[in-house]
Amino acid sequence: MKKLNSNNIKLAIQKEGRLTEETLDFLKRSGFIFETSKRQLFSLCRNFPLEILYVRIGDIPKYVSSGIVDLGIVGQNVLYEERPQVGKLLNLRFGFCSLVIAVPKESNYKSISDLENKTIATTYPNSVKKYFQKSGIGIETITINGSVEITPALGIAQAISDLVSTGSTLALNDLRELETIYKSEAVLIANKSINIQKQNLLDKLMVRFKGVLSADSYKYIMMNAPKEILPKLKKIIPGLKSPTIAPLGKEGWLSVQSVIKEDIFWETIERLKKIGATGIIVLPIEKMIL
Ligand code: ATP
Predict the structure, then answer these.
(1) Prediction pTM value
(2) Which of 282, 279, 278 is nearest to 265 (CA)?
(3) Which sign does the torsion angle of CA 151, 153, 154, 156 carry?
(4) pLDDT at 94
(5) Ligand 1 centroid from CA 17, angstroms
(6) pLDDT of amino acid 44
(7) Degrees to nearest 5, angle at CA 225 with 222 and 227
(8) How far apart are CA 176 and CA 106, in angstroms?
(9) Measured in angstroms, how far is the CA atom of residue 60 from the centroid of ligand 1?
(10) Does ligand 1 have an atom closer than 6 angstroms to the CB of 77?
(11) Cα atoms in the 13 Å half-sphere on the side-chain side of 213
(12) Cβ–Cβ contacts within 10 Å for residue 210, how many?
């Protein structure tokens, strides 16, 4: 049987589930080369002293807090629910979902205060209790580990609280959303007492992860612009430090290159077109080391 090497940095990820594919994709985009197969319990990276362990997501916080592994990738919801003694290092920008309270479509419940003295079925009892305590509304919870949506129809609960991403599962089960308790995404967590040697590896790992995350939130943009619009243009795209500007063969025209934030992308393009920029080309960035 293959043994884990204690000098390698160890990362636990979900073996099979909603976070698995995007986690593997994120690790591969971060430049780690490793083989995966469904039956494998762990993989050793070929180009970095990193071991990836495949486990149930519910076990990851325990493994990380106890130091069995150094790092883990879980949904932030797990941290809110279990409050494990781990450090949160990064938000990973995938695995987006929300913990919501939902009630049967045809019911008369209009707001969460209508749920006073009612029973709420959930896999996240701590999060739900805390939320209602804060709101000063007394409720009961019943903990269910799967298919929470069915409980109102079974008469076990009057409302549910569950994770949703699009809301289509709620609609399919004749439920409607009443309130959001919190939003969640995948996060990188770490053991709180990593040794110096591993800390060095972790620093290198973080540069790679951050490189991918920054690249995802920016686009590279190139355009042609008449000289006279340059002051206005610089205000719209300040670039990381400043845009790259070069003269074009055509008299009075410039070629301008810069990076822009993904979240204001369309707004920026519209403003650039309006002041007279032409031939705008936008490219994805693979990695960006700041
Ligand atoms: P495991 O099977 O590994 O023990 P699980 O059954 O909780 O765990 P999944 O249902 O695959 O696993 O959910 C894993 C994580 O995916 C959740 O903890 C959450 O962070 C995230 N997630 C994203 N979208 C959703 C969604 N619509 N419903 C549930 N979880 C979601």
Answers:
(1) 0.89
(2) 282
(3) positive
(4) 97
(5) 6
(6) 94
(7) 135
(8) 9
(9) 13
(10) yes
(11) 16
(12) 17
Best residue among 24, 57, 88 to mutate for probing ligand 1's pocket (most ligand atoms within 8 Å of CB) is 57
pLDDT on residue 240: 64
- In sequence order, the 6+-apart residues with CB closer than 8 A to the CB of 142 are 119, 120, 121, 122, 151, 156, 157
Q: CA-to-CA distance for 11 and 54, rounded, in angstroms?
A: 9
Q: Is 75 in the pocket of ligand 1 (CB under 6 A)?
A: yes
For residue 78, the CA-to-ligand 1 centroid distance in Å is: 9
pLDDT score at 3? 65
**pLDDT in the model for residue 242:** 79
pLDDT for residue 23: 98
Contact 258, 221 (CB under 8 A): yes
Residue 58: the pLDDT is 92
- CA distances in angstroms from 28 to 34, 172, 211, 267, listed in the order given: 8, 35, 13, 31
**CA 40 – CA 4 distance, rounded (Å):** 13
The share of the chain scoring above pLDDT 70, in percent, equals 99
**8-state DSSP, 6:** T
Is 141 within 8 Å of 120 (Cβ atoms)? yes
**Domains of the chain, each with CATH number or no CATH:** 9-95+186-215 (3.40.190.10), 97-183 (3.40.190.10), 218-283 (3.30.70.120)
CA–CA separation, 104 and 173 (whole Å): 8
Spell out, as residue ranges, where the chain has pLDDT lower than 70.
1-3, 240
